[in-house]
Design brief:
alpha+beta, six-stranded antiparallel sheet, three-stranded antiparallel sheet, 4 helices, about 30% helix
């Protein structure tokens, strides 16, 4: 067991698998405690829902990132508070019209990393009940769908207009997954993709700001 050189509470993981699941190690070691949290979020989701809609995306700051919100994780907390409220509102409206409609808990994993010029950004994964949401909708601003709710929540977190976050919510290639309780392959595919968030590289550990977080229930 090798402890992280900057944070002795964290354990470095170098192996290509974790609990028999493949992980990404091309960028160096991962953090075992982060992998544990990721696995827990997946397990809790699949315990509650037979199928889980999961997706990856990134959040970036505007060019004038030298603002107080960039020096703490308050901004990511505000993002999730806003997104949860928007999803709750949507589900409530749907349930008003159809009492048989499905609800969802919003579960997530995120990490805070630093790229060129030490500008922070966030990598995230969100997991939802696939019977409630199975797509982000069309990638067009102004629509009533999850794609727009992501933008609205990031704008709310930053305290700027929705028009000013266009381009700051990034969806990578093939970001969508459907995890099925009876399909270990679907779970393994997503765990491998999301293990990228658990890497040690490009995070900061000695500034008093968490570099990783996940929902707990």
């Amino acid at each position: 067991m090798i402890r992280h050189w900057q944070n002795s509470n964290l354990t470095l993981h170098y192996q290509p698998t974790y609990q028999d699941l493949a992980v990404q190690t091309a960028r160096g070691p991962l953090i075992a405690e982060y992998l544990d949290r990721l696995k827990l979020v997946i397990d809790l989701s699949l315990q509650q829902y037979r199928r889980v809609f999961a997706f990856r995306f990134d959040l970036r700051f505007p060019m004038d990132w030298h603002l107080p919100y960039a020096d703490s994780n308050q901004v990511i907390e505000r993002f999730f508070a806003s997104l949860k409220a928007k999803i709750r509102h949507n589900r409530d409206k749907v349930l008003e019209n159809n009492r048989h409609a499905h609800d969802t808990v919003v579960r997530f994993v995120w990490c805070r990393e630093f790229g060129q010029h030490e500008i922070p950004h966030y990598h995230l994964a969100i997991l939802l009940n696939n019977d409630a949401y199975c797509t982000l909708g069309q990638f067009e601003m102004g629509r009533q769908n999850l794609f727009n709710r992501l933008h609205q929540a990031w704008a709310s977190a930053l305290g700027i207009s929705v028009g000013n976050v266009v381009g700051l919510v990034e969806l990578p290639n093939a970001p969508f997954y459907v995890l099925r309780r009876d399909s270990p392959e679907t779970i393994a595919d997503f765990f491998y993709r999301a293990s990228y968030l658990c890497k040690s590289e490009t995070k900061q550990y000695a500034n008093g700001v968490h570099g990783f977080g996940a929902s707990r229930t």
